Every structure is written in structure tokens, then in C-alpha cells.
Amino acid sequence: MRLIDTHTHLDFPDFDADRPRLLANAAARGVERMVVLGVFEGNFQRVWELACADERIRAALGLHPVYLEQHRPEHLGLLRQWLERLHGDPRLCAVGEFGLDYYLAELDQDRQQALFEAQLQMACDFELPALLHVRRSHAQVIATLKRYKPARAGIIHAFAGSYEEAREYIKLGFRLGLGGAATWPQALRLRKTLPRLPLDSVVLETDAPDMAPAMYPGQRNSPEHLPEIVGALAEIMGIEPGLLAEASSRNACEVFGW
Ligand SMILES: [Zn+2]
């Protein structure tokens, strides 16, 4: 089984004790490639170093809405400089993680919107896919994407919206990132939506170290768990795991131009 983990935070200190062992084990389990996403300016260098040190790792750089209070106005300029400097380097694969988070009430929505649009513009300018964090904000994200129409589209990370919202994203060329969330029996709506999604619209992700799947409750999540996650998602979708693995890997390669 050939798998691609389109969303990880392997730069986080959670992995400092055993990162090489984890990467070797993930590869042995068929995980060919992993995307590591920057979330604030302070971790860009670290994310980039990981992508330089291991050819299975690709980097994305972005300013995550949850870290709104840490971002300074000059960080957008610094992000643009990173993207300029790495333009055309295959180890840089996207702008992200960025987006809108309306779940956390303390995050000012106007400031989030400005940050979101500035980074969408960068995805357009540098012709890179956008890897988006969308929580309780689908309508606003869809409306904004319709204005910018980023040519390379991208991925809606940890998609948990409705079927109607999925259709809007698909019309805009976006893929839907699926991972541990749907493996939980409580995720009723998502589990009903999954079998209705076209197979060419989904990609796989773990969001490691977060979003542990139901088979590893409360544990650090890891790309090593992707084969079990594929098995659980394929069962919900009513298809063979091999078919989901193959389609999702093909879709990921299309998004990133691999
Ligand atoms: Zn993330």
C-alpha cells in the first residue's frame, strides 16, 4: 500500500525523542511522503530543515489562525520572502497552514480574514496549492475562495463539513483531507457524508501529533497510523482499503504536482 500523509506537524517537539525511528517505520508501512506544515514564523526554519534532511518530507509554510496573537505584521512579509527564495524548489510544496477558525471565540475574525486573504494572494502569486484550516467557517472560506479562485486550489484539511459544503469545495478544485476524525463513532454526520464523496476528491492525512484515530485514543498521532486510518475510512466508505489508498495518493500527487 502506497500512502501519502498530506498534513503533519512532525517538527513539533512531541517527535524530538524518536523522529528518525518514526520516519523509518512510516516508510516501512508504505507512507511514501509526508507534508510538514509551518504554523508560525518561528517554526519555518525548522520545517524547512526537515524537508532538506529527508526526501520523503515536503514543506509548506503559513501563518495559522490559532496562533493569531503570535503573528506580527512583518511576518507576512517574511513569509513572502521565504516563498520567493524557495520558488521552484520542489521541497516547498504549498502555502499553509492558514485559514479561518471561528470555533475559538477569542480569535478576532477581521484580523483572521486579513491574514487569510494575504496568504491566499501568495498562493495565487507563487502558483502553489493552499492547505487550509477551516473550523466553523465554511461559508466564509467558500465565499473568499470564490473571489480569489486560486489556480492550484489545494486541500481543506480535516474536512468535517456537510455534503453541500464538500460540493462547493470540489467545484473550486479543492480536495478534502480525511483522517482520524471520521474513525470516531460520534462523528455521525461526517460518517454519513464520506460514502457520498467522489473518490477523486479525497486525500489522506493524520495531523500528527493531533487528531488521534479511534484505535489509538489519547495517544500521539503519527504517520505510522495511516494504514489503520485508511482501513477504517474505507470501511465507512464501503470500498476496499487498497482502492482508497491508490485514489488518495493519486489525488495528492495531482494537488502537489508530483
Ligand atoms: Zn495542522
Task: Give an account of the 3D structure.
The chain is of the alpha/beta class. The protein has one domain: Alpha-Beta Barrel (TIM Barrel), CATH 3.20.20. The chain is built from nine helices and eight strands. Zinc ion (ZN) binds next to loops.
Descriptive keywords:
8-stranded parallel beta sheet; alpha/beta; binds zinc ion
SSE class: alpha/beta
Order of helices and strands: EHEHEHEHEHEHEHEHH
Strand content: 15-25%
Q: What overall form do the CA principal axes indicate?
A: globular
DSSP strand count = 8
What CATH architecture do you see? Alpha-Beta Barrel
Can you describe this structure in just a few lines?
The chain is of the alpha/beta class.
Layout: helices, strands, pairs:
Layout: E1 3-8, H1 19-28, E2 31-37, H2 44-53, E3 57-61, H3 73-86, E4 92-101, H4 109-125, E5 130-135, H5 138-148, E6 154-157, H6 163-171, E7 175-178, H7 188-193, E8 202-204, H8 226-237, H9 241-256
Parallel strand pairs: 1-2, 2-3, 3-4, 4-5, 5-6, 6-7, 7-8
Helix pairs in contact: 8-9
The protein binds zinc ion.
Zinc ion (ZN) binds at residues 7, 9, 37, 97, 207.
